[in-house]
Amino acid sequence: MAFDRSRRPSDPRQAAEAAFKAATTKPVETAKPVSASAVSPASSVPGAREMVSLRLDRAVLEHFQKDGPGWQDRINAALKAAAGL
After folding, report:
1. Residue 77: inside a domain, yes or no?
2. Is the pLDDT of residue 35 over 90?
3. End-to-end CA distance of the chain
4. Is residue 32 part of a domain?
5. N or C, which end of the chain has less CB nearby within 10 Å?
């Protein structure tokens, strides 16, 4: 009788890695031609923001948080100014 490897892995680490990969891998989409007039939905909404995660030095975070609520807006404004936007 042959061993069926299509079943769940018995190693918990392999099972966790397989579950993480399945949950975080984007499905492959077929390439669609993009027209010059195509606009993404997020860019059509004025002031739309994208949720991201980024790592900042503790000193940078403390600098922006010292004035209280609105620190994320202050970081966004500083990044826009630095990028020349």
Report:
1. yes
2. no
3. 66
4. no
5. N
